[in-house]
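User: Hi! I have a protein structure encoded as tokens and I'd like to know what sequence might fold into it. I'm fairly new to this, so please keep things simple.
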């Protein structure tokens, strides 16, 4: 993940809040591991998921993939 996308995810996390961004989610210590889990869960549950950096715990989580509109909002 490049720095612009990382920053976008951190801004979005702060906007959505700690409870929904970090809360009780599993804290993966690497982008690679969170990405692997996201791919596995995406296939298993047929949902659009992605790994993202957490603005609160500094780890990585798996959550729903942000929409294009959300990505644009938090990129600008």
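Assistant: Happy to help. Inverse folding works backwards from shape to sequence: for each of the 76 positions I chose a residue that suits the local structure. Here it is:
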């Amino acid at each position: 993940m490049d720095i612009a996308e990382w920053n976008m995810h951190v801004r979005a996390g702060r906007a959505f809040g700690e409870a929904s961004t970090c809360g009780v989610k599993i804290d993966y210590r690497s982008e690679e591991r969170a990405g692997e889990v996201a791919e596995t869960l995406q296939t298993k549950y047929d949902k659009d998921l992605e790994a993202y950096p957490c603005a609160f715990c500094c780890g990585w989580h798996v959550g729903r993939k942000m929409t294009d509109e959300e990505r644009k909002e938090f990129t600008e």
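A useful reference point when you look it over: The two ends are 18 Å apart (CA to CA). Feel free to ask if any position seems puzzling.
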